Amino acid sequence: MAEKFKMKILCIGAGYVGGPTMAMIAHKCPQYKIVVVDINKEKIDAWNSDELPIYEPGLYDVVKSARGRNLFFSTDVDKWIKECSVIFVSVNTPTKTYGVGAGMAADLMYWEKTARRILECAESDKIIVEKSTLPVKTAQAMERILNSGENSRVKFEVLSNPEFLAEGTAMEDIKNPDRVLIGSMQTDSGIKARDVLCEIYSNWVDKEKILTSNIWSSELSKLVANAFLAQRISSVNSISALCEKTDANIDEITNAIGTDTRIGNKFLKASVGFGGSCFKKDILNLVYICRTYGLTEEADYWENVTKINRHQKQRFVLKMLSSMFNTLADKRICLFGFAFKADTGDTRETPALFVAKKLVEENAKVIITDPKAISNAKSDLSDYSLKIEYIVDPYEAADKSHAIAIMTEWSLYKELDYEKIFSSMEKPAFIFDGRNIVDHKKLYNIGFNVYPTGKSPLTHF
Ligand code: NAD
Ligand code: UGA
């Protein structure tokens, strides 16, 4: 039977990026066949089931609309490399944990294995799209590997197309992106490949939102975007510490400065610190690249963004310790939320992990509740299993506790019956709001000692 599809597109890596982005392309473009492959069979089985491997609002419906029609999930990496003409690479690029650059540089092991696999299996020309976040100049290495084969009849064109989605809003971000960035070599074949990718996106993204650039600018823009976003949070969090010393109020300050259109009002929420798989790793990668080029001052400048973030988490724990009479031993402390942000079950680099570990070190009894992240929390804290309880229901979790610490801004925590919670807790009852999401005055009036972030505490002492 003749193939009915206009183009066959492969994505290598079925994670938080590969799964949702490819599902959206398949959903919006029934004329293309989209295959997502991964070496992790369990993950692929989950993508083929009703229990998807990740939680993302709206994802299930989009997957369901296209799966089996023009969207397929498979472990047969080699077969689909052969068959597809456009190959997105969205494998993980974590921080290196060994050797030179350990703790700073991006680990390109998975990415390079993929490049070599493509080279080994390809029998026809391919467009390779870097979707993973990569150090600037990676495309050059990719081209060198791909063009090192004996079969020089196969031509590879490498493009950079970084992903800007945020977890929890991934489907909306992919459907209505602020921009799509496509970097290419400025050669005839590079521009031709770029146009193919532009055409794919133009099925649902306005043409003026599809930005093109040279390939190095595109690679570097991704690291810079994350560095700027994280820098904003560290800036606000550093001021939150000053607010706590001076009776100023961080929300009033961000409201005042955010109305300046040059500053803008987004991404100015003080918190217990930023988490997620990418901010820290991408900044450290940027720092490492700067150092590699001998740009010491620039590297130090960006590294401070991560230092402030660690300090903010540390400060949160110290605030709990000092306000609860300098001992947490044997006290029950309930963490409201464990995910690194609301609307996701992802716990990578979540500030709650840091806080939970520090509380255990203080011999506190930690109870964790979260609507989506309990199973990830259990695996993150498997070494501490005897010291931590996991309870999905927040009322049960808070029962008989000495303190609640709000770690994740799940909207359900705004709507709880805090009178009921207060009456079940040990007294004096404390609440530490690492996200500033609850009504502090109301909680104070119920009887809580309330410790917001970047605002004066409201206490009954
Ligand atoms: P992830 O860990 O969720 O998924 C990566 C997948 O790649 C894994 O399932 C892994 O099994 C698979 N993989 C690794 N090596 C492979 C190989 N050789 N062949 C086939 N599959 C292989 O990672 P992610 O969160 O989707 O991130 C992927 C990339 O996208 C990273 O570079 C990340 O920085 C970037 N990114 C992530 C986000 C996000 O919100 N998570 C947003 C933008 C960009
Ligand atoms: C972030 C970027 O927003 C995406 O554009 C990027 O594609 C992605 O990283 C990536 O490269 O992986 P994500 O980490 O999913 O997305 O989520 P964010 O909404 O950026 O939140 C990151 C962390 O910052 C969370 O812990 C969040 O709670 C915290 N945050 C965010 C604040 O503390 N204050 C804010 O004002 C905003």
Question: How would you describe this structure to a colleague?
Answer:
The protein has 461 residues and is of the alpha/beta class. The protein has 2 domains: 7-205, Rossmann fold (3-Layer(aba) Sandwich); 214-461, Rossmann fold. Helices cover 42% and strands 14% of the residues. The protein has helices spanning 18-28, 41-47, 59-66, 77-83, 109-121, 138-146, 170-175, 188-201, 215-246, 250-258, 279-292, 296-323, 351-361, 374-380, 394-398, 418-424, 440-446, and strands at 7-12, 32-37, 71-74, 86-89, 126-130, 156-160, 180-184, 210-214, 332-336, 365-369, 388-390, 403-406, 430-433, 449-451. The strands form 3 sheets. A 6-stranded parallel β-sheet has the order 3-2-1-4-5-6, with helices on both faces. A 6-stranded parallel β-sheet has the order 11-10-9-12-13-14, sandwiched between helices. Strands 7-8 form a two-stranded parallel ribbon. Helix 16 (418-424) links the parallel strand 12 and strand 13. Helix 11 (279-292) runs antiparallel to helix 12. It is elongated, with a radius of gyration of 24 Å. The mean pLDDT is 96. The structure holds nicotinamide-adenine-dinucleotide (NAD) and uridine-5'-diphosphate-glucuronic acid (UGA). Residues 133, 163-167, 226, 229, 233, 267-269, 271, 274-279, 340-341 line the site of uridine-5'-diphosphate-glucuronic acid (UGA). Uridine-5'-diphosphate-glucuronic acid (UGA) binds at residues 133, 163-167, 226, 229, 233, 267-269, 271, 274-279, 340-341.
